[in-house]
Write a structure and sequence with these properties.
- The structure holds two protein chains of two kinds.
- Chain A has eleven helices and eleven strands.
- Chain A is an alpha/beta fold.
- In chain A, strands 7-8-9-4-10-11 form a six-stranded mixed beta sheet, sandwiched between helices. In chain A, strands 1, 2, 3, 5 and 6 form a five-stranded antiparallel beta sheet that branches.
- In chain A, helix 5 packs across helix 7 and helix 7 runs parallel beside helix 8.
- The N terminus of chain A is likely disordered.
- Chain B has one domain: Orthogonal Bundle (MetI-like fold).
- Chain B is an all-alpha fold.
- Helix content of chain B is about 65%, strand content about 0%.
- The two termini of chain B are about 45 Å apart.
- The chains are: A alpha/beta, B mainly alpha.
- At the A-B interface, helix 3 and helix 7 of A face helix 6 and helix 7 of B.
Chain lengths: ~300, ~325
C-alpha cells in the first residue's frame, strides 16, 4: 500500500489553521459590489434550514491555491473579470451562477486548460502552494491540479489501463502492470469503485455504467495524488443514485485534496459545499461559507439567484 | 369512450401532385437501374469467371502463346497484386495517419494545413495515368536509378518500388480522409481529459485518440487497398506489364522488387478481347479473382463500420 502524502510542498505561511466560519476577506470583491447592500435580510426561504446540512467540513483547512485578480477574455469577449479567491484543502468550494457566467472558465484557468482554446488570454495571478502556475510546465501543473468533466469520458482502454495511463510517463507503457497495480487499486478504492470493478479490471472502461464511468474518471484524476481536484458539473449527466454516490465521495475526498466544483444545481451546492462563490456575468459577486451564502447572502443578486428568482 | 385505434400514417401517393409522383417513379427507376448495372457486372464476371477458372491457373505462370491451352495461368500477376498492394499501403498508411493527425489535431500553421488539405483532395481526383506519367519522369532520374534497373547508363524507371510509391498516392487520400473523420468524431472533452491529467498532445494522440479512431483507420486502409489493387495505368507504365516477374539481379528480395512484373489488372488489360494477348477466358478468370478481392475488402469495410457503430462510445 502506498501511503497518501496529504500535504506536499508547503510554504512558510501555510499550515494548519483553525477553520473560520465567516467569509475570508476577498475584500475587493465585496467592496466592488458594496452598492447593493443586502445585509440583514431574511434568509432565503429555499434554504432556510442550514441545520439539515450533514456535511460540515473538517476542522482544518490548508490553503492550496490563490486566485488573484484573474481576468480571462476570449478574443475581445471578457469571460472572467478580476476574480480573487482562495482554494483550500479540507473544504469543497462550489462555483455557482447562471450559464455563461464564467465559472467553467475560472475552473479551467486553474489548470491552464483555457490555454488550449484559441483566442483565450488571461491576466492576473494564480498560485499553487505559493508558486505562480504561469511559471510551471502545463503538464506538471495538470498532474497536480486534475479535472473531471461533465460527460463521463473514460479512455478507450481497460478499467485498469485508464488509471495506469495517468501513472505512467506520457505515452510510455512503463512501469509495467505489476508495478502500478497497488496504486491503481488504491485510486479505484478512493473513488469508491474498487469493489464494483475488482473482478473486471481488464474490461473496456466504456462498458461501465455512466455513474461508474464518472467515478472511474475521478479515480483517474486522483491517481497521481493531486493537490487540487476540479469538477465541472460532474453529475449533470448522471441519474440521482449515481449523483448521490459521487456527492458522498466528494465530501470524503476534501480531506486530502482541495475540491472545486462547478455546478448548476443549487441543491447540490447546498448539500456538499463548504464555501460557495457566486459568479454573474464574469464577476465574482459574492464568496462566503455555504451557510452564509444560502442562509444570509449579503448581495441582493446572490439572494435572488439562490432563491430561484433567476438562473 | 373507447380509445380510437392508432391510425397508420397514410402512405398512398394518390393525393400527391403529378410532378411529385413522376419524381418518385424516376427515383425508383434510377435506383433499380443502378442496382441492376452493378449486379450485372458482378454476376456476369462471377459466372464467366467460374466457368473459366481452373485451379492450375492460380499456380502456373503466363506464357507467350496464342492458344489458350498453352498460355498458362496468372501466378505472377496474382503475387504482383499482393506485393504491390502491401508495399503501397505500407507507405500510405503511416504517412496518411500522420497527415490526418496533423490536420485534425494540430492544423498549424493554418495556411499550410489548408494547402495540404486541398492538395490531398486534388490527389484523390487526379487520373492515375497522370500520376503514372509523373512517376516515369521521377524514377528515370539517375539519382533514383538504384530503385530500378540501369542498362548502358539508361535508367529504366520500372520496378515494384516505383509502382508502389505512386500507387501509395492513390491510396493515401482515402486513408487520410477516413482517419481524419474518425479523429474528429472524438468529442473534445476526451482530449481535454487526457490533457487534464498532465498528458501531452503526442501522448494523448498515441494512447487515446488513435486507438479510438482505429476502426476508421482500418476502413480507410481497406478502401485505399481496394483502389490500389484496381489501378491499371500505374502498373502498365511503371511495373512494365511484363506478365511474369523479371528480376533485376539475383539478390533474393531486392532483385525482385527492383525488377519488373505485372498485376492482375495488367494481366486483364493484356488478355482482354481487344488487348494484345486476346485470351478472353484468361481475362475473365483473372477478373473473377480480382473482383473477389475487391468484394472481400468492401464487405470488410461494411463489417468494421457496422461493428464500430454498435461499439460503446462517448456521448
Amino acid at each position: 500500500m502506498r501511503k497518501p502524502p496529504p500535504v506536499r510542498r508547503l510554504t512558510g505561511n501555510e499550515g494548519y489553521a483553525p477553520r473560520v466560519e465567516v467569509a475570508p476577506p476577498p475584500s475587493e470583491v465585496s467592496a466592488r459590489t458594496a452598492g447593493q447592500n443586502g445585509n440583514g435580510h431574511r434568509p432565503s426561504s429555499a434554504f432556510a434550514a442550514p441545520s439539515s446540512r450533514t456535511t460540515r467540513g473538517t476542522s482544518i483547512a490548508i490553503e492550496r491555491m490563490q486566485v488573484e485578480e484573474l481576468s480571462v477574455t476570449y478574443g475581445s469577449k471578457p469571460a472572467v473579470k478580476s476574480v480573487s479567491l482562495p482554494i483550500r484543502q479540507g473544504e469543497v468550494l462550489a462555483l455557482i451562477g447562471p450559464s455563461g457566467c464564467g465559472k467553467t472558465t475560472l475552473l479551467r484557468s486553474l489548470n491552464r486548460l483555457t490555454e488550449l482554446t484559441r483566442g483565450a488570454s488571461a491576466s492576473g495571478r494564480i498560485t499553487l502552494d505559493g508558486v505562480d502556475i504561469a511559471s510551471m510546465e502545463p503538464t506538471a501543473l495538470r498532474r497536480r491540479v486534475t479535472m473531471v468533466f461533465q460527460q463521463p469520458n473514460p479512455f478507450p482502454m481497460s478499467v485498469f489501463d485508464n488509471v495506469a495511463y495517468v501513472l505512467r510517463e506520457q505515452a510510455s507503457r512503463r512501469p509495467r502492470r505489476a508495478a502500478v497495480r497497488g496504486a491503481v487499486h488504491e485510486a479505484l478504492a478512493r473513488a469508491g469503485l474498487l469493489d464494483e470493478v475488482a473482478d473486471n479490471l481488464g474490461h473496456p472502461a466504456l462498458r461501465l455504467s455512466g455513474g461508474q464511468q464518472q467515478r472511474l474518471c475521478i479515480a483517474r484524476a486522483l491517481a497521481a495524488y493531486p493537490e487540487v481536484l476540479l469538477l465541472d458539473e460532474p453529475c449533470s449527466a448522471l441519474d440521482p443514485q449515481s449523483t448521490r454516490l459521487i456527492e458522498e465521495l466528494i465530501t470524503k475526498l476534501r480531506e486530502d485534496v482541495a475540491v472545486v466544483i462547478v455546478t448548476h444545481n443549487l441543491q447540490q451546492a447546498y448539500r456538499i459545499a463548504d464555501y460557495v462563490a457566486f459568479m454573474y456575468l464574469g464577476e465574482l459577486v459574492e464568496y462566503g461559507s455555504a451557510q452564509k451564502m444560502f442562509g444570509a447572502p449579503r448581495q441582493s443578486r446572490t439572494r435572488e439567484y439562490v432563491s430561484g428568482a433567476f438562473g | 369512450m373507447t380509445a380510437a385505434p392508432a391510425r397508420r400514417p397514410d402512405r398512398s401517393t394518390a393525393s400527391w401532385r403529378l410532378s411529385d409522383r413522376l419524381g418518385l417513379g424516376l427515383a425508383w427507376l434510377l435506383g433499380l437501374l443502378f442496382c441492376a448495372i452493378a449486379a450485372a457486372i458482378v454476376i456476369y464476371f462471377l459466372v464467366e469467371g467460374i466457368r473459366y477458372l481452373r485451379p492450375n491457373l492460380l499456380v502456373t505462370n503466363p506464357a507467350a502463346a496464342s492458344s489458350e491451352s498453352q498460355s498458362g495461368g496468372f501466378l505472377d500477376p496474382l503475387l504482383g497484386t499482393l506485393i504491390v498492394g502491401a508495399m503501397a499501403m505500407a507507405i500510405a498508411v503511416p504517412v496518411g495517419i500522420g497527415i490526418a493527425v496533423w490536420l485534425s489535431e494540430f492544423g498549424r500553421p493554418t495556411g499550410l494545413a489548408r494547402v495540404a488539405e486541398s492538395s490531398i483532395e486534388m490527389l484523390a481526383g487526379e487520373p492515375s495515368v497522370v500520376l503514372a506519367l509523373f512517376g516515369t519522369i521521377l524514377f528515370t532520374a539517375p539519382a533514383l536509378g538504384f530503385l530500378s534497373q540501369t542498362t548502358h547508363g539508361v535508367v529504366l524507371g520500372q520496378s515494384f518500388f516505383a509502382t508502389a510509391a505512386l500507387l501509395s498516392l492513390v491510396g493515401l487520400p482515402l486513408v487520410v480522409a477516413s482517419t481524419r473523420e474518425g479523429l474528429q468524431a472524438i468529442p473534445s472533452h476526451v482530449r481535454e481529459a487526457s490533457y487534464a491529467v498532465g498528458k501531452t498532445k503526442i501522448a494523448t494522440t498515441r494512447r487515446v485518440l488513435l486507438p479510438a479512431a482505429r476502426p476508421s483507420v482500418v476502413t480507410g486502409t481497406m478502401l485505399g487497398l481496394g483502389r490500389v489493387i484496381s489501378d491499371t495505368a500505374i502498373v502498365l507504365l511503371l511495373l512494365g506489364g511484363t506478365l511474369t516477374f523479371s528480376t533485376a539481379n539475383s539478390t533474393p528480395v531486392l532483385g525482385l522488387l527492383r525488377g519488373t512484373g505485372d498485376t492482375l489488372t495488367g494481366y486483364i488489360y493484356y488478355n482482354a478481347p481487344t488487348g494484345d494477348g486476346n485470351q478472353p477466358s484468361k481475362a475473365y478468370a483473372a477478373t473473377f479473382v480480382l473482383l473477389l478481392m475487391v468484394l472481400a475488402l468492401n464487405l470488410g469495410v461494411d463489417f468494421v463500420l457496422s461493428r464500430s457503430r454498435k461499439a460503446v462510445t462517448w456521448r
